[in-house]
Design goal:
Elements: E1 10-12, H1 19-25, H2 32-36, E2 49-52, E3 58-61, E4 65-70, E5 73-80, E6 83-94, E7 99-109, E8 113-120, E9 130-134, E10 137-143, E11 147-149, E12 152-160, H3 164-169, E13 172-178, E14 184-190, H4 194-206
Antiparallel strand pairs: 1-6, 2-3, 4-5, 5-6, 6-7, 7-8, 8-12, 9-10, 9-13, 11-12, 13-14
């Protein structure tokens, strides 16, 4: 994760924010083989792989990853240690350095709320909570930083079902933070495609068996 500077220029990268974002924000790591694997093309399901059976036949193995784009959002699934993980995400990168500056992902959707993580860059005042706005209007309460890792600083995000309509109908989600020094800074995420990505993620998460 790059440190925040005044000269940074941001761009949306929903494709990269899929599987790569899901791994980084949730704290998962890939094996060397997984890190070198190329994700499937946007909006297409990955091809199944095959392995030989003891009898010399061929057994079909289920795809281990999926990535789909919905405008400025990416929906991703992967299988790690036999467990399926799915989520929707968007990230912003520094155009000049090609490094991620901001990422938001949602990895849990229930009847009551949606939960996820917001990854912010270093250089911010982590003792000062962030606030959110949808199209210039306050959204939810102030959110504290949870922790800082090698990739940046994490903020847990929970959205009640009653407030999801604002994200669906809105055009932008603005994050208001404070730089380590007192100055205010904002980051803006596009909400284009949020509704479609959310609905798709909800379906995929329903297919995941509950933990026993």
């Amino acid at each position: 994760m790059v440190r925040l500077t005044k000269s940074m220029r941001f761009s949306f990268t929903p494709v990269v924010a899929g599987i790569a974002g899901l791994l980084v924000v949730t704290g998962l790591t890939t094996t060397p083989a997984a890190a070198q694997a190329r994700p499937p093309a946007s909006g297409t399901a990955p091809a199944s792989s095959t392995t030989p059976t003891p009898a010399g036949g061929v057994a079909t193995v289920e795809p281990t990853s999926l990535q789909e784009n919905y405008d400025d959002w990416a929906v991703s699934c992967l299988v790690r240690d036999g467990k399926k993980v799915c989520g929707m995400s968007q990230q912003q990168v520094d155009k000049d350095r090609g490094q991620r500056v901001l990422a938001l992902e949602i990895t849990s959707i229930t009847a009551e709320q949606a939960e996820g993580n917001l990854l912010l860059p270093f250089g911010l005042a982590v003792n000062t909570p962030i606030t959110l706005q949808v199209d210039g209007t306050a959204f939810g309460s102030a959110l504290p930083y949870r922790t800082c890792l090698a990739g940046g600083c994490l903020v847990s995000v929970k959205v009640e079902r009653a407030n999801l309509g604002r994200l669906r109908s809105g055009t932008s989600l603005t994050v208001h933070a404070t730089v380590d020094g007192g100055q205010s800074i904002t980051f803006t995420l596009s909400l284009k495609g949020f509704g479609a990505a959310f609905d798709r993620t909800a379906v995929l998460l329903k297919d995941i068996p509950a933990a026993k």
